[in-house]
Amino acid sequence: MEFTLKFPGSIIFGENSIEKLGENTVKFGEKCILVTGGKSIKESGALDNILNSLSKAGIDCLDIYRATTEPDCDMVDEVREMAKVNDADFIIGAGGGTPLDVAKAAAGLYGQELSTSDYLNKTPYEYKGIPFIAIPTTSGTGSEITNNSVLYNPVTKNKVSLANPEFQAKLGIVDPVLTYNMPASITAYTGMDALTHAIESYTSMIANPVSMTLAEKAVELIMSSIEKAVADGKDTVARRDMALGSMVAALAFSQTGVGVAHAISHPLGAIFNIPHGVLNAILLPAAIDFNSQVVQDRYDRLAELMGIEGNLSEYIRNMIKNMSIPQNLTEAGYERGREKEILEMTFQSRSLYRNPRKVSEEDVIEILEKCI
Ligand SMILES: [Fe+2]
């Protein structure tokens, strides 16, 4: 047996850990750019906490970029330009998956000449980036741990992963308090994304004893707290367990990759503009049914761990019924007639190669039909 583990610089986890931002980033320099999402980060007070902590440490936040829609190459180009003009020492991403992925790609491509879409097309480059600091305010994407950004590529009209081992955050601050104001629907679908990360990592072709231990812990944390966090956003124990579960799931899947649910989810997100977590919530049970032919023992182990009697996929289907998110692809905005594009993009995804069961075009169509 042989495996390599890759973890980010350091992660500070805990309630109010955001206050430690300044003292832990001063070593990266005195000038930074901040990438955030919508208004909620200001309304929750998190933005003030971030700026106060930076200014106490003598760090200037020179500009703030708001990334509010799904992450794309133009946003990354704009942040790269902002960082260049301001001669920034590092870039902070604070918010959900979008600001984190945009900040990560902009920090990683700092110092490069070409536009971001060129690097999606696998143009080789020598890394000259600046540190990326990650502050998630949702519990799901795991972008604070992973070494890639998932970006919409206008050339191929698909979501593509821009990856580099150097992209991993030099510092992540996972403060569950920042998630307290997240609405129930976002809590549900970002949480289901995290659960999909954990379960797909657990059955990955390259899962190893360390990643599997992490994935088991993540499944336990997420499945025991997601419904509580959705029902009551002020349940601080559930919020903490979700933040921890999401982070641990990312520690697992950043070692192993994910699987067929993610491979199908990315094209559907690009074509129909459906949030990534909604798609994974709908696709996960069908992906489990599909893979159970080869990894039923692993699903049984997870069910046993959770004290679930019966089928893991049925249990998850029932769990989603209690959440305020679309229950099937049609409800989420899927329309028939784009199958050719979906198949083309699905088979470009690296996630398929880590899936425990070989996937054919007919299999993808069958999974989609089950979810419509
Ligand atoms: Fe995901």
Describe this structure in words.
The chain has 372 residues and is an alpha/beta fold. It contains 15 helices and eight strands. It has helices at residues 21-25, 40-43, 46-56, 73-85, 97-108, 116-120, 184-202, 209-231, 236-256, 260-272, 276-305, 312-321, 329-332, 339-346, 361-371, and strands at residues 10-13, 31-36, 60-66, 90-95, 132-136, 148-153, 158-163, 171-174. It has a six-stranded parallel sheet, sandwiched between helices. Helix 4 crosses helix 5 (97-108), helix 7 runs parallel beside helix 9 and helix 11 (276-305) packs across helix 12 (312-321). The longest helix is centred in the C-terminal third of the chain and has 30 residues, at 276-305. The N and C termini lie far apart (41 Å). 54% of the residues are buried. Residues 193, 197, 262, 276, 280 line the site of fe (ii) ion (FE2). Fe (ii) ion binds at residues 193, 197, 262, 276, 280.
Total helix count?
15
How many DSSP-defined strands?
A: 8
- End-to-end distance, in Å? 41 Å
Question: What percentage of residues falls in helices of 4 or more residues?
Answer: 40-55%
Q: What's the domain count?
A: 2
CATH class label of the largest domain: Mainly Alpha
Ranges where pLDDT stays below 50 over 5 or more residues in a row are: none
Small molecules (ligands, ions, cofactors) in the structure: fe (ii) ion
What do we call the CATH homologous superfamily of the largest domain? Dehydroquinate synthase-like - alpha domain
- Could you say which structural class the secondary elements and strand pairing correspond to? alpha/beta
Tell me the radius of gyration: 20 Å
CATH architecture of the largest domain: Up-down Bundle
Assembly type: single chain
